[in-house]
Write a structure and sequence with these properties.
alpha+beta
């Protein structure tokens, strides 16, 4: 059974649901301490961590896929372009 809830986050109304997961005890303890220190709920902090992780992973997968597409199209930097970048950053 999935329960949906509506919350307000940063001025936006969002539908939420419950997710149960297992984490190492040390992670739970860190989450407890962070929640106490920030006066945020553990649920909020865990949700933010998951959201940030997913955002980064989606970006990274997109960049990898773009690079694969460029490689498949033989769209590589020329020797001159590579050398110019090396000179710029490596002296």
């Amino acid at each position: 059974m999935i329960r949906l809830y509506t919350i307000k986050h940063n001025g936006l109304i969002m539908d939420t649901t419950t997710l149960t997961l297992r984490v190492p005890a040390t992670v739970k303890e860190q989450l407890d301490r962070l929640a106490d220190a920030t006066h945020r709920s553990k649920s909020y902090l865990a949700g933010e961590a998951i959201r940030r992780y997913l955002e980064l992973e989606v970006w990274q997968i997109g960049e990898i896929q773009q690079a694969i597409n460029e490689a498949d199209a033989n769209d590589f930097a020329s020797d001159e372009e590579v050398n110019a970048i090396v000179r710029k950053y490596a002296g």
